[in-house]
Amino acid sequence: ILPTELFQCKKLRTLNLGNNCLHSLPPRIGELTSLTQLELRGNRLESLPMELGECRQLKRTSLVVEEDLFNMLPTEVKEQLWKVDREQA
């Protein structure tokens, strides 16, 4: 379980949650709109919240997660992540 105070860190740019045995990622992750890097690999996640698409600064290449989890995201969220990659290339 992530502390609720984490989601008050509106200027947070990098978040490493890798290898923490997380079973889920709360939808509130979308409140961290300044995130540019997010490490999630090595957890027990079965899905990613659609709200991840609200992290408009997050690039696909900076979202470190198992490929099957990324592929389960809704198309519009995946497109948003790739769009940021293209814009910043």
From TrEMBL:
Keywords: Leucine-rich repeat, Repeat. The keyword DNA-binding does not apply. One of its GO terms (cellular component) is cytoplasm. InterPro entries: Leu-rich_rpt, Leu-rich_rpt_4, Leu-rich_rpt_typical-subtyp, LRR_dom_sf, LRR_domain-containing. It comes from the Eukaryota. Gene3D superfamilies: Ribonuclease Inhibitor. PANTHER family: PTHR48051, RAS SUPPRESSOR PROTEIN 1. This is Uncharacterized protein. It comes from Cynoglossus semilaevis (Tongue sole).
